[in-house]
Batch of 2 targets.
Target 1
Amino acid sequence: MTTIDDGRAYGRESGEADPELVEVGPGTRAGELLRRYWHPVGRSEEATTQPRTVSVLGEELVLFRDRSGTPGLIEPRCCHRGTTLYFGRVEENGIRCPYHGWLFAADGRCLDQPCEPDRGRNKTSYRQPWYPVFDYHGLLFTYMGPAHKQPLFPRYDIFEDLDEETEEMVIIDHFAFGGPTVAPCNWFQTHENAMDPYHVFILHNAISGPQFDPKLEIWPRISFQRHAWGVTATQDRDLPDGTTLHRVTEIRVPTVRVIPTPTLSVLGKTNNLSWALPIDDTHTRVFAMVRKPKGLPPQGLPVYGGDKSWFDLTDEEHQLYPGDYEAQVGQGAITRHSVERLASSDRGVSMVRRQFKEQVRVVADGGDPVGVTFDGDGAESVIAGNYIIGPDTDLDTIPLSETLR
Amino acid sequence: MTTIDDGRAYGRESGEADPELVEVGPGTRAGELLRRYWHPVGRSEEATTQPRTVSVLGEELVLFRDRSGTPGLIEPRCCHRGTTLYFGRVEENGIRCPYHGWLFAADGRCLDQPCEPDRGRNKTSYRQPWYPVFDYHGLLFTYMGPAHKQPLFPRYDIFEDLDEETEEMVIIDHFAFGGPTVAPCNWFQTHENAMDPYHVFILHNAISGPQFDPKLEIWPRISFQRHAWGVTATQDRDLPDGTTLHRVTEIRVPTVRVIPTPTLSVLGKTNNLSWALPIDDTHTRVFAMVRKPKGLPPQGLPVYGGDKSWFDLTDEEHQLYPGDYEAQVGQGAITRHSVERLASSDRGVSMVRRQFKEQVRVVADGGDPVGVTFDGDGAESVIAGNYIIGPDTDLDTIPLSETLR
Amino acid sequence: MTTIDDGRAYGRESGEADPELVEVGPGTRAGELLRRYWHPVGRSEEATTQPRTVSVLGEELVLFRDRSGTPGLIEPRCCHRGTTLYFGRVEENGIRCPYHGWLFAADGRCLDQPCEPDRGRNKTSYRQPWYPVFDYHGLLFTYMGPAHKQPLFPRYDIFEDLDEETEEMVIIDHFAFGGPTVAPCNWFQTHENAMDPYHVFILHNAISGPQFDPKLEIWPRISFQRHAWGVTATQDRDLPDGTTLHRVTEIRVPTVRVIPTPTLSVLGKTNNLSWALPIDDTHTRVFAMVRKPKGLPPQGLPVYGGDKSWFDLTDEEHQLYPGDYEAQVGQGAITRHSVERLASSDRGVSMVRRQFKEQVRVVADGGDPVGVTFDGDGAESVIAGNYIIGPDTDLDTIPLSETLR
């Protein structure tokens, strides 16, 4: 009897993840790349005089806002004897440890040591570990890398020059616009999905759909573009009225994904942009920022089984109508890249991975990764959108229009 | 002061399990022996067009039945990008991954790749890891070993030639006939119990009893027999009416235990047989198959505290009326053999262990273990039963009757 | 750009615990010191004919009382085949394993083996691992060290010569006199708190207070004293009426803390004493014994937020009114000593740690630690108390009064 290879499961490899894609903790190669950028940690209104715990890149931190209005993000363990400052008392200029009363400013300086002689003759030698916080349109960001590498906060053109009379900014933090806020899986497998336009036809249409605008059911011409700052995909669909729907999505290193609303409720340049937040190696949260006219809903949510929200579904209906949550969390807590077999439709995913790993190596080699700037105004220009192109459209005004010429 | 040995607990060893008895995972020595046999995975009606997760020998798998009626048992992770096929859509000839739509037959062949050119020019080079499934009287079995070592499915004489008019087969899957379906402990400690007739007098009579037929309270003559295929125990009890109750129980390598009903509701050769299913190293399920006249209950269940079922008991009553579940799970998630001290009443248990370990070594050395056949009809003959022997009984018709001569 | 040190959290050490302070398990250095003393395991009424599981120093044990009244504390796994004796049947002179009926006395001797020839010809060669139990005023203690090192049980003077007519002993086992019974953190960080008088002014007064008697808000003169058997702190407060409140607290190696009631309901020598019980490395229970007049409550409990008990508080109120539980559990499951920065107010804590580690080394080097005696009556004299000192007080009657002279 000789060995038969009929592909059965006996002896298959269990496989492993690529650490350069998935690790987020301090000291890991990918974690050090992530630590060269600003990351969202919560809505501005979540920083209050009641301290709360937040987890970012595998680090548990305490977020608060002192009574003078300054937000603080600090190591929970008091630098003295280690009691958590989650139980600290927030005062005018900082947070006070409940155990021995040491008072720390939002930037970690020790302002008072009431049980020490002269309330702390030596208190300037103590500092509670801290991170800087930046408020961008109501979303708080932090930079968790080395001090001398702190970049400017990047400002996106689509969110500039808001007309406060008629427009407003909305922050949405449910995973994949509909579904749980936190996905119990690694962030990267949720991220690369944004450069995988093919799954829309299967997951969101053939299997569970239509979850989005019916025009997205038309099979498009797809191409991918590599940029210094990320990767884009273009999808061109010839519509029945003779126009073309030219849809551009983008991923920016490291965690930004720009996906124009798939309900096509907004045409032209996108009005929203999302940041993946790697909470730790196996949990991910997504913060989306949407610019919209006052009084209108931000965008339609995907529907399941015809007219249900994700939370309305039974277990069996989740099996019948899977969405982004099921497909991505369904790859496991951390997908195992070594037992994947990529095919031609995975080209965008491959490009995103390759670029990310290149930047991991740039940082490991002592360099500065793409997308960080240390001077200027930090302005960045987004190109993603749903563009309707007719015979009279000036293609020079349409990003990445060469695919249509 | 010199050291005193008064047996106190200070310095005792914590002990360890014998890996050749307890490990079930792929690549382990005992796991490789187990993988040379067929194992039950669920009732036939559990394989439907709604995929379900099953765990067997430490492997998590997806069970389904395609719309043409073929059951499938496959690796959950899609071989493409790893999304679980638990969320797959079952079609006429297979299961389709929800993420990119790859369609796999029950035997793993890839039948469609809708996002690839020509729906997958190269699709025959992909195969989803799979295991074969065999339906035996409504219970599904799988073989998880190497393809070229796949044995015939063993058919037991006691389940042959069913008279469909008057008889039926019933599958019972609660642990120890009464109690939870899944026991949170290693399978082997549940298995060797079947060759431990002494505990019946203590656990099921003196401590908690009588849980079974009162005749079993009579102290019997006990002997054990080693066979090529397993171990048997005979218990002979002299009954008040001058007859002898000759009870034979058997264990067959690797996981079959044949225990004639202890309520003595069936006399003669047994009408039931059980398979232990090692779910993983610390969880066990037992599937029993019972042949019975239509319209009658399969067998009485053990009672606790006089007239209660296992599920009716309070915590304190579980302490007062322990049964098989408490005794076996009470040995720990995995019992620690190195701190046992076997005595003469453990002879049957020792024989079962010794034979199992011998077969582990046969497989490790490249051989084929007992009880697997590659040609013929797979028929096996069971000998266990409750035999009443009177002065006129022809002992030649009674299995293992030499103990009575 | 050069590296900036602004104290931010990037690159901070996560730190580690000192194993000589925190480990409690068998074979660890600190665990071996702890095993040279008696430890409380439960109230006398918890040892009954219904076996119960208790965990002490990282060992899970079974506590019972045979029908003749003798309490037993034994290894749960039967020495025969390993079934837990939690399901054992308690009889006149011991506990019987439910599986094969072996009967063990409270001191582990095997008294019966009903399935063995002659009910166990060789039974004296078996012994169930056991520990001795001592009942002290209704609290059961065990000694888990080597037999030849078993010390006398220490009897405290404050609990001798009880007037049974008018006095009674009360055992209180909630953590920190108000709050959960079991604290999910290492025992040592709860213990050293008793030699940290400064936190009283902050935690129990400025932050959450007053939780205790208002006199304790007066800032005292504090000093610490090292003794052969432990460490004491004295706090001297000049009261408005010209008297001095002289408060002495003590810690005795290894786990005894003597903290006179902070509500000052008892003056003079303390009426209570507590033992920390290290359940395992990350769980701690405290047993306090209080001597009191019949008919009076044992002592006031701390109040939170003015008039609430710990259990009445919402999550937000626990943040607003932290107490001992929050401060000590808030140091983490096991505090990390290497990232502490002790200051002058931590002198008492440092003394307790130093002495404990010295004793760890005494035992590791083969010696006998302080506080164990092998002959005599085991009597020990406590000195802690709340002493009011006026102009006429004879200072020679006040312990540690040199701080006042």
Target 2
Amino acid sequence: MATVTAAAAGSRELAHPARTEIRLEGVLHALSDPMRMHIVRDLSAAATELACSSFELPVSKSTTTHHFRVLRESGVIRQAYRGTAKMSGLRLDDLEELFPGLLAAVLEAAERQAARD
Amino acid sequence: MATVTAAAAGSRELAHPARTEIRLEGVLHALSDPMRMHIVRDLSAAATELACSSFELPVSKSTTTHHFRVLRESGVIRQAYRGTAKMSGLRLDDLEELFPGLLAAVLEAAERQAARD
């Protein structure tokens, strides 16, 4: 029974790149979509993990899931299940260690563009 | 004859977005490809315009042309014909005005990644 529980828990673990596997081109690609930038800005503003369900994006649920997956697989966010909620948070430490100042510069650029729009 | 010359010159002018048309998502997408990042790093290191023919990329000529077009249409570079040479240069002033520090942060990130590889 313990084994089954462990396996069930294991099947709900989400794949993440290790810090050293995070690639700049993947991070920039992940950030090059307005919906994904929206998610990243919200996570940055919240400064904590947020449930995927707390995002109200003007796209379908499956498209939202896709955007979160691109962010996770590129190393921009970390996702984990907490009970029934799928929580997401920025990988600030990893990104800052790999690419100092990059995320801050991108977020500031996004803010400036939003102010222009 | 003067009119013909002007028309011929006009047909060789390349389309560029105005500064206010440059979008962050387009810039990040343009920078999210390793070949295009290679071009941008070379242009940054040269600190001047370079002829397209001076880049030796491990891809076909038409693929190279495509990468330069993506960089130009996103507003990252400016291209112009000088005689028979097509010259390219970074739009540093426009990018710095729109997104201060962004290109510098991306270039530093690219340098760090290259040092890791």
